[in-house]
Amino acid sequence: MSKPVLGVLIGAVLLFVGMAFFLPKKEVVRIGQQYESEGQQHLQSLDQKHEKYKTNPPTSGPHYIQPAEWGTSEVEIPDEQLVHNLEHGGVVITYKPDLPEDKIDSLRAIAANLTMRDDQTSNKGFKVILAPRKANKTAVQLSSWRYNLKLASVDQTKIQAFYRDRPNIAPEANVR
């Protein structure tokens, strides 16, 4: 290799390395609203009273000892049980029960095909729950540990982005 070509090659490498150090870093913006932790106390019984959650749906706080099964549920799951799934690093997708059936079918298909980030597992539908929830303020709501995303309608792009951004960022993320 000639000296001029080698010099150009070294210059190009130094330019790229310099750009990596001196260009402004792009801030990572997480999708959804972040909240303070409300703790992770395990309730000793299903009827044990606790303070009202500060978020709707809850994103942390007191919860049942037993988490819910991952996957799709046709019936509402108690918030106290879903919070345990959030503590394990899961994402919960809830929808108003009066959502049209075709929209619910769309949510089922989206939930079944979600995959984690490349640096996580790539099992489809891993650590996700889809269930109806009467207390939702919007048509569709997504929750993860300390994060919430409220959607007026089914938005596959936002649901996928939230899911890829949030899984396994929780106190007990290594627990299935």
Question: How would you explain this protein's 3D organization?
Answer:
With 176 residues, this protein is of the alpha/beta class. 30% of the residues lie in helices and 14% in strands. It contains 4 helices and 6 strands. Strands 1-6-5-3-4-2 form a 6-stranded mixed beta sheet. The longest helix has 20 residues. The chain is elongated and about 80 Å long. 30% of the residues are buried. The mean pLDDT is 85.
Summarize the structure.
This protein is α/β, with parallel strands linked by helices and 176 residues long. The protein is 30% helix and 14% strand.
Topology diagram in text:
Blueprint: H1 3-22, E1 33-34, E2 71-72, H2 79-87, E3 91-95, H3 101-113, E4 128-132, E5 140-144, E6 147-151, H4 156-165
Parallel strand pairs: 2-4, 3-4
Antiparallel strand pairs: 1-6, 3-5, 5-6
* Mean of all residue-level pLDDT scores: 85
User: What is the percent of helical residues?
Assistant: 25-40%
> What class, by secondary structure content?
alpha/beta
Biggest β-sheet: strands ordered side by side in the sheet: 1-6-5-3-4-2
**Ends: how far apart?**
55 Å
Number of DSSP helices? 4
Radius of gyration: 21 Å
Oligomer: single chain
Largest sheet: 6 strands, mixed
Number of strands: 6
Topology pattern, helix = H, strand = E: HEEHEHEEEH
The low-pLDDT segments are: none
Which descriptor suits the 3D outline?
Answer: elongated
Residue fraction in strands: 5-15%
